[in-house]
DNA sequence: ACCTGAACACCGTTCAAGT
DNA sequence: ACCTGAACACCGTTCAAGT
């Protein structure tokens, strides 16, 4: 069989075909496997067909790689937002897109929940949110703090969901069944409210909670605008 | 010098003085050191004056230990809430207390942000929040989903702040300075909103954001009550 | 200039052996 | 019944050596 370089591009001895982009794309492939495949430097080396430590020629450390990967996924979120929406629609679309991407790449969503990438696509997200809160009627310091509220809340929401996806199946099952097990068995005298709502508590879905949390952000902005207009 | 057993209670050869409570208290001492001292099984062994693996006689694994430690800290939060507050006051006090405790034991606050302890003090917190949203005027499924919104949002807020405290000093500094560095230097044409608000963005404090996020939860509940009354 | 691979300094957890 | 300590199967990262 003759050599066919095109189909052996990732063979171990192909020279210096390692680029930041190739490393980011390999990272996304691993991240997409969720809890089935740990996102480690050694696993990344396998995926690239290179020595695990080769990535240190292109990224200072794993943290810097993750920030770059996260910024790439923010690009996917931005591309999913349609044109022409009003401020509420843009925040809802940003929330839905962020959730979808965080659940697709849980290790990225989880790790980045309390970070700032300081990279181009994050700038675009910030620009979008500030535009929305200003269109809603906030300005100056009020717009700034409400932007931060929205931005960090969205990161927190999707980060929580993503982190949960990364737990071992047994831990996840134990947490998920709490509302239909432990919380149904609490002492009725000591915990009357829980007892009274036990059925409804077990029926709440993650999707309902997410929607209510996003609407809470919007309500809070509207209420703040009304309060400031009234004063 | 004569033996004085009372003062050598934690000596290496004192027999079986290891109890779940002693392990939880040692865990809290390590957790209180924040990013200066990693919360590892080996470090816990040192703190207890025992072999690192001794804790596996009392807890199935590190996760179960952390759940127990977390429930202990929830007790501290509950003890900090005064009697006689109305529903808004109780949510504000719960938020403030949770933040304080999460910043005191960051590794606990960070790890538990997407978990359910399913332990006694968590039941008390759930009872408190459900009582608050019902006093606000919500019932049944509406009360259930709004309880979940409040509970998970508070966990997310304090978890984000706690996680940030655990990063290495240089990573934390880079994230904190983003608003006064990278975000001040963005292209004014491409990012007019960021440019317009750059001063205000750099001046927002974590405390302001936290307060706005807590008030947003309260606003959202009030708005939902109004909407349901109107319908 | 970039990649390799041995090595270092860590992790959580298991299990046979001690007392 | 509980604790010990060696051992296992991992981590991220460094650095001298290769090409």
Condensed summary:
The structure is a homodimer of 231-residue chains. Chain A has 231 residues and is an all-alpha fold.
Written description of the protein model:
Chains A, B: Residues 40-59 bind DNA. 2 copies of one chain form a homodimer. The relative contact order of chain A is 0.09. The first copy, chain A, has helices at 20-31, 41-48, 62-79, 87-104, 106-111, 120-136, 140-166, 169-176, 192-203, 206-230. Chain A folds into 2 domains: 1-59, no CATH class; 70-230, Tetracycline Repressor, domain 2, CATH 1.10.357. The first copy, chain A, contains 10 helices and no strands. Mean pLDDT of chain A is 91; it is low at 1-14. Chain A is an all-alpha fold. At the A-B interface, helix 6, helix 7, helix 8, helix 9 and helix 10 of A face helix 6, helix 7, helix 8, helix 9 and helix 10 of B. The structure holds a DNA duplex (19 and 19 nucleotides).
Give the SSE map:
The structure is a homodimer of 231-residue chains.
Chain A: H1 20-31, H2 41-48, H3 62-79, H4 87-104, H5 106-111, H6 120-136, H7 140-166, H8 169-176, H9 192-203, H10 206-230
Helix pairs in contact in A: 1-2, 1-3, 3-4, 3-6, 4-6, 4-7, 6-7, 7-10
The structure holds a DNA duplex (19 and 19 nucleotides).
């Amino acid at each position: 069989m003759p050599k066919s370089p095109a189909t052996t591009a990732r063979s171990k001895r192909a020279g210096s075909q390692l680029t930041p982009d190739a490393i980011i794309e390999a990272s996304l492939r691993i991240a997409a496997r969720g809890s089935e495949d740990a996102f480690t430097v050694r696993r990344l080396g396998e995926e690239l067909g290179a020595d695990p430590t080769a990535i240190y020629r292109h990224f200072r450390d794993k943290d810097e790689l993750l920030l770059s990967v996260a910024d790439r996924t923010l690009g996917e979120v931005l591309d999913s937002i349609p044109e022409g929406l009003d401020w509420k629609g843009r925040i809802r679309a940003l929330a839905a897109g962020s959730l979808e991407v965080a659940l697709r790449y849980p290790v990225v969503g989880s790790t980045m929940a309390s970070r700032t990438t300081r990279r181009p696509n994050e700038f675009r997200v910030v620009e979008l949110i500030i535009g929305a809160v200003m269109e809603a009627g906030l300005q100056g310091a009020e717009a700034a703090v409400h932007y931060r509220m929205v931005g960090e809340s969205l990161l927190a929401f999707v980060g929580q969901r993503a982190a949960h996806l990364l737990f071992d199946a047994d831990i996840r099952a134990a947490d998920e069944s709490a509302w239909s097990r432990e919380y149904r068995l609490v002492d009725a005298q000591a915990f009357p409210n829980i007892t009274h709502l036990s059925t409804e508590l077990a029926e709440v879905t993650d999707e309902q909670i997410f929607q209510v949390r996003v609407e809470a952000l919007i309500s809070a902005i509207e209420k703040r605008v009304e309060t400031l207009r009234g004063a």
